[in-house]
Amino acid sequence: MAYETIIVETRGKVGLVTLNRPNALNALNSTVLAEVLAAMQIFEANPRIGAMVLTGSEKAFAAGADIKEMQSKSYVDAYFEDFFVGWEQFARIRKPVIAAVAGYALGGGCELAMMCDFIIAADNAKFGQPEITLGVMPGMGGSQRLTRFVGKSKAMDMCLTGRTMDAAEAERSGLVSRVVPIGELLEEALKAAAKIAEFSLPAVMMAKEAVNRSYETTLAEGLRFERRLFHSMFALEDQKEGMAAFVEKRSANFRNQ
Ligand code: CAA
């Protein structure tokens, strides 16, 4: 499939999607949305792929939703097309997706990174929700997801002042899982994704589902959900294989069954 705004590659069991609109700092327009979704859905359906990495350039993961595309919309346009709703399909991808973020992750770029399962940041990464400087507010989940990641005080600070957070602050605040030198970003993210892809895919997908459920439910219901999923894993051949391999002191050979 030919793409205009992204580069799609496969590295072993890992699907790699690189945002590629260098002249617009990877601003997220409707073509980017359609192409990212298409590429991710192809990886999702491919049984040989166990995890995905989403990245941008050294200068920008993505500098936000495309301001030039949005600029002339009316309220009715935005309302009828339910502007940005398409990104919810990205957040519903069931295989793991790691965001490898270098440079600017602003507005929709920060929001897209937060829709991934975790963020590995380069030391030059800058996160922010500067929509307030444009006379608007976050619209792709920033007010909700950022608050869950970093707490109310920092989320308010970022959404109301539009200030950016550097990689060190993002790591301290729990927004990113690790920070690496920029030259090692892609390698580190691909290594993490390859490690995940070696594990039992159903176990990985259920673990992702369980962690995500913690955002949506009470602790008691979440614990019950986790326990039921855990019980169901005893129907997997991979559970037998994983535990047998441990006891027999060998490495496991998971078959995603
Ligand atoms: N939309 C459209 N085009 C963008 C863009 C965006 N979000 N961000 C950058 N660009 C374009 C610029 O217009 C410029 O294009 P031209 O050369 O044709 O003028 C090109 O990318 C390079 O950008 P700059 O010259 O501005 O680069 P810089 O290095 O001087 O500055 C920057 C970098 C600080 C990131 C600056 O580009 C910037 O502030 N960008 C906008 C950031 C922003 O406000 N993001 C939020 C968007 S709204 C949103 O995302 C809503 C939501 O909740 C989903």
UniProtKB/TrEMBL annotation:
Its EC number is 4.2.1.17. Keywords: Fatty acid metabolism, Lipid metabolism, Lyase. PROSITE patterns: ENOYL_COA_HYDRATASE. GO terms for molecular function: enoyl-CoA hydratase activity. It catalyses: a 4-saturated-(3S)-3-hydroxyacyl-CoA = a (3E)-enoyl-CoA + H2O; a (3S)-3-hydroxyacyl-CoA = a (2E)-enoyl-CoA + H2O. It is an enzyme of class 4 (lyase). It comes from the Bacteria. One of its GO terms (biological process) is fatty acid beta-oxidation. Belongs to the enoyl-CoA hydratase/isomerase family. PANTHER family: ENOYL-COA HYDRATASE, MITOCHONDRIAL (PTHR11941:SF54), ENOYL-COA HYDRATASE-RELATED (PTHR11941). Could possibly oxidize fatty acids using specific components. This is enoyl-CoA hydratase. It comes from Allomesorhizobium camelthorni. The lineage of its organism: Bacteria, Pseudomonadati, Pseudomonadota, Alphaproteobacteria, Hyphomicrobiales.
